[in-house]
Amino acid sequence: MCGITGFLSPNMGKVHLSKMTDALAHRGPDAFGLFHKPELHIGLGHRRLSILDLSTKANQPMTSHCNRYAIVFNGEIYNYHEIASELQSALITNSDTEVILEAFCKWGADFVHKLNGMFAISIFDTQTKSLYLFRDRLGIKPLYYYRDETNFLFGSELKSIKASGIQLKINKGIITPYLHLGYIPQNHTIYYDTYKLPAGSYAILRGNHFKVHSFWEPENCIEKDTIWNYNVAKKTLNQELNLAIEKRLISDVPLGTFLSGGIDSSLVSAIAAKQSSTKLNTFSIGFKDAKHNESGYAAKVANHLKTSHHEFLLTKDDALGELEEITDNFDQPFADSSALPTYLVAKMAKKHVSVCLSGDGGDELFMGYGSYSWAKRLSNPLIWSLRKPISNLLSFSPNPIHNRASWLFKGSKQNTKSHVFSQEQYLFSEQEISTILKSSNSVHIDSLNKEPSINRVFTASENQAFFDLNNYLKDDLLVKVDMASMQNSLEVRVPLLDHNVVSLALNISEKFKAHPNGTQKHILKEVLYDYVPKQYFDRPKWGFSIPLQNWLQNELHYLIDKYLNTATLTELDIYNVTKIKMLVKRFENGETILYNKIWSLIMLNRYLLQN
After folding, report:
1. How far apart are CA 69 and CA 416, in angstroms?
2. Domain ends where: 216, 239, 266?
3. Which end of the chain is more exposed for a tag (fewer CB within 10 A), N or C?
């Protein structure tokens, strides 16, 4: 796991490249390397976190055996031994980097179809002066790029592009989808001319010609018929999970798993513990003053699995002391407050290991969120036709839960998927955004809600889950995990997002996921219960989060005072100031379900003022 950066530009030199690479030092503290050919206007930079083949021979940038190509690579390729055997050539290292490069030499850009792993790759062809960029199927590893008339720059994080001295201009048009979702969606960033390379794609820059090619899309994995035999589905899922986790246990450094005590992390930990040749390290954290602290459940699971368990109970002060530094690390507005516990557990784990496995992806693939039930309800024509009176009735209820539910009935039919997500996250609806911003548009929101082109008709719940897979998972959860872990120089692997597991999950019957008896993630739980007794999980799903609502009313209220005051709102010149002040007053007067809307505004304003 590493940080990569570079440019193809007549205006950039080695000094720029060094600064861009230094900006990623936290991603790779073990080695530093540059490839610079001023006559070709190319620069590639690399910061290495050594995981496989710890020798200096495996350092990057690396040149091919024929000396024609140079590579910088971030990620892990889990089947690189199998690919190496296909190459039938003598290899100098035991690293996946060399295998990737020689595979490109042999098969060209099509080699990417052979890769099983998470990756962001850049390869430069010194003969044709072509720059290639590749990003893994699910977008686990990030890759940003900037392009104007004469400059092309890329990096694992936006901060490496900024370090070049290029002046990036904020795109205020992206504020609408940010407030709606809590993150910046699809392939956009907060800046003009700066984008994320789409997941499952590669790009070629040759001269002034730049083209992005898709090599994998989840839509293409959808079969006409689902797997309707439960026993076949469960057996196949168990097999694929074991294969995915086995591949991700390959490491030349100490390894462990995140263990929250929930379904996904417990399943990953259980299979990893069974397969590991040494005692598995597991890590969990909790807040001493949290309403729901799941660390005790994690400890019980760890004891059953006989892992070497590390539990960190944090005080409020432990977390608050790091909050602003963590939020600043994200390079652009990001409202997911669970970045804080993710950062903290990564920080603690790094004291013991350099690699951790996580359970990300289980909820999206196996219908673990309540939003899928809401999508099903709203798809009922009768309920939809009565949405306005239902909403009005719920809004007058003294019960905050009913008030929140009223929000779900106020969206537009064409944008139901993003609306359901937004309201489940306690964020702003399109209607609200149009009142709090001086100007807003729904262009990006509309594009989020396009119906997928697939081989079978999805139910409303399947559509909502597919929306989350393509958006929430990729642009929020995976961004959070990458940024929070790599800030601590910790590699995180996500076996549930092995593309073979994803393809299988997308074709398992919905009734095996959202069981008719109301059980969410039913088939995934049944696989888990073959490893850990069911009684360990007979409790409500809480998840791990910070008590943000309480903190904003108390210790963090200074952020409201600082970033949502009249002078600041007026200075930013994007808001209807009166509407924002009314929102703050409602929150302070006890309408605490507004806390995430308040938080998303604070994160946005904090960023805009600093940039």
Report:
1. 47
2. 216
3. C
Pick from 449, 422, 254, 420: nearest CA to 352: 254
Shared-domain flag, residues 309 and 199: no
Q: What is the pTM of this model?
A: 0.95
**Euclidean distance between CA atoms 48 and 90, whole angstroms:** 24
Q: In terms of domains, do 23 and 111 share one? A: yes
235 lies in the same domain as 211? no
Q: What is the pLDDT of residues 432-488, one digit of tens each?
A: 999 999 987 777 888 889 988 898 999 999 999 999 999 999 999 999 999 999 999
Q: At residue 106, what is the residue type?
A: K
CB contact set of 346 (below 8 Å; sequence gap of 6+): 356, 484, 485, 487, 488, 490, 492
The pLDDT value recorded for residue 407 is: 84
583 pLDDT higher than 90: yes
Beta strands at 152-155 and 201-206: parallel, antiparallel or unpaired = unpaired
484-515 pLDDT, tens digit per residue, is: 999 999 999 999 999 999 999 999 999 999 98
Residues 62 and 170 in one domain: yes
Output phi, psi for 7, to 5 deg: -150, 160
CATH number of the CATH domain containing 174? 3.60.20.10
Distances (CA, A) of 585 to 146, 578, 591: 40, 11, 9
pLDDT 10s digits, 330-342:
999 999 999 998 9
In this structure, are residues 212 and 481 in contact, taking their beta carbons and an 8 Å threshold?
A: no
Q: Are residues 60 and 197 in the same domain?
A: yes
Task: Check residue 319 and give its pLDDT.
Answer: 82
Task: Round the CA-based radius of gyration of the chain to a whole number and report it.
Answer: 24
Catalytic residues: 2
Could you list the residue range(s) of the whole structural domain that residue 294 is in?
220-314+332-366+484-537
104 and 29 within one domain: yes
334 Cβ contact partners less than 8 Å away, ≥ 6 residues apart: 182, 183, 184, 327, 476, 479, 480, 603
Whether residue 406 is contained in a domain is answered as: no
In a domain, 511, yes or no: yes
